[in-house]
Amino acid sequence: MSSTATSDEDRYEVAVVGGGPAGLTAALYATRLGHKTAVFDRGGGRAAMMQDTHNVIGVPESVSGNELLETAVEQLRSYGADYRREFVTDIDRAGDSFALETTDGAAVADRVVLATGFSDGRPEPPLPRTGRGLHYCLHCDAYMFVDEPVYVMGHGDSAASVAMIMLNFTDDVDLLLRGNEPEWSDETGRLLEHHPVDIVREDIIGVHNGEDGWLEALEFEDSAGPRAADTESGDGTVRKYTGGFAMYGAEYNNELATSLGATLEDDGTVTVDDHGRTSVDGLFAVGDLTPGHNQIPVAMGQGAKAGIAIHTELREFPKSLAELEAEGAVEPRDVPAIGDELRRRANAHASARGD
Q1: Where are the stretches annotated Disordered (predicted)?
Q2: What fold does the segment set 8-120+249-314 form as a domain?
Q3: CATH 3.50.50.60 fits domain 134-246
Q4: Given 51, 238, 267, 344, which residue has the most CB atoms within 10 angstroms?
């Protein structure tokens, strides 16, 4: 890491790396609990890809992922957090703190929250449009396909499992191997034999979309075993689908955690306790970077718990008995502990309530 100097403006109590629901919620709690906080966000991410928001109480499905995130950033800024559209390239220990190097400068923080998530493994083209027939979140989107023809792309255990799970919602499920040989276990193979899932081995050679952009059908090379409702079109078999799921694994963005020596799980997620603490003192991880369900409400809950845990570690009061014996009683002039800028923002919010 370079030795870029940092000004007081670049010194934070809490630095959050990643601007998805988990990171923004951690930053929200840290800021409202009185800690100078910055979010470093390179943009993009899984939440930003959402055409519609599902399973978030109080948020209409008409709200896109980008709209959800933009509203959250506006809230953060109103409370006094810094939102920096920068990519964090490196993090090192700097005494009891952390030194962050970014594409636009540097910063120092007492606590760091990693919320860098993962990238879905994506099938090769041709594809349906993401969010308009191609989906990655079973628990978010299965409801959309009740009694509809559905595909699952993939050739491993996870794809086979999701195909069988989708039988809870529809009786019309295809597992698309796309020319690959199955890599699932013998046990999974036996399970598939006893569930009404059609296995389509041929690859896709065309995508049929409606005028609204939503998927209507996929076209396969050779003969992919047409069902009663399917037709022949061009050089291949056309099979009708309302949508489906791609299951090609995930690549976790754990480079920063690894560079700091944080413990990882076998799948590449970062090992954390119930409040997001990693094996590195002062380093937290939340959201899709950690084990568990990849869901916005879950990620927000993890962010909230991490923010509260950080506050518990950083707050000035109450002083311990040892501190009081060494330093004396807390004087009225010593409180409150909240910084001037955050205090001003809090007073502004209080004034707005009185209008």
Answers
A1: 332-355
A2: FAD/NAD(P)-binding domain (3.50.50)
A3: yes
A4: 238
Q: What's the confidence (pLDDT) of residue 254?
A: 98
Cα–Cα nearest to 286, from 74, 315, 298: 298
88 Cβ contact list (under 8 Å, min separation 6): 17, 40, 42, 100, 101, 102, 256
- The answer, yes or no, to whether residue 8 has pLDDT greater than 80, is no
| Nearest alpha carbon to residue 65 among 127, 126, 117 | 117
Whose CA is closest to 175, among 150, 145, 147?
Answer: 150
pTM above 0.70, yes or no: yes
pLDDT for 2:
44
Pairing of the two strands 97-102 and 88-94: antiparallel
Phi, psi of 313 (to 5 degrees): -75, -35
Cα 132–chain centre separation: 20
Could you please report the per-residue DSSP string of 332-347?
A: GGG---S-HHHHHHHH
pLDDT attached to residue 6: 63
Q: What is the mean pLDDT of residues 178-199?
A: 97
